[in-house]
Design brief:
2,3-Dihydroxybiphenyl 1,2-Dioxygenase, domain 1; 2 helices; globular; single chain; 4-stranded mixed beta sheet; alpha+beta
Length: 144
């Protein structure tokens, strides 16, 4: 599949506690912190720009909205990263060591099918759902 070279994406999410976001993204996940102000923090999220904006009234993630994907209830909305298998395992270990509960436990989805992938979901301290995945064959990211 021919794809255009990927550049870093920019994503801004609401959080209700900047220090908790700093602890989770910076501490647990090891994302370097960039610019910040009293109302927001930039993080280097695996080479992409993630901005946590203080917006407590805007956030009401109760986790109840889900779609079934390969037998698991996937939280909607969510965002995340496609990692190589070694980085996926390192991230799983970091989350486990920090006692971050899995919203969807690490497992292999679409086993034996196009797009086979390891996946796991966690919630950041503000309740945002974050997915990490690693494909058995990275060229299958958009496979049908």
């Amino acid at each position: 599949m021919n794809r255009a070279p990927l550049g870093p994406f920019h994503l801004a999410i609401p959080v209700d506690d900047l220090e908790a976001a700093r602890s989770f993204y910076g501490g647990v996940l090891g994302c370097a912190e960039g610019r910040s102000a009293p109302q927001w923090i930039d993080f280097d999220f695996f080479g992409h720009q993630l901005v946590c904006h203080l917006a407590p009234a805007a956030h009401s993630a109760d986790g109840s909205l889900r779609n079934a994907v390969d037998g698991h209830g996937v939280p909607v909305p969510h965002f995340g990263m496609v990692l190589d298998p070694a980085a996926f395992e390192k991230t799983r270990e970091r989350l486990t060591a920090a006692a971050i509960p899995f919203d969807v436990e690490p497992h292999v989805r679409f086993r034996g099918q196009p797009g086979e992938q390891a996946t796991m979901f966690v919630r950041d301290p503000a309740g945002n759902a974050v997915e990490f995945k690693a494909l058995a064959d990275p060229d299958q990211l958009f496979a049908r």
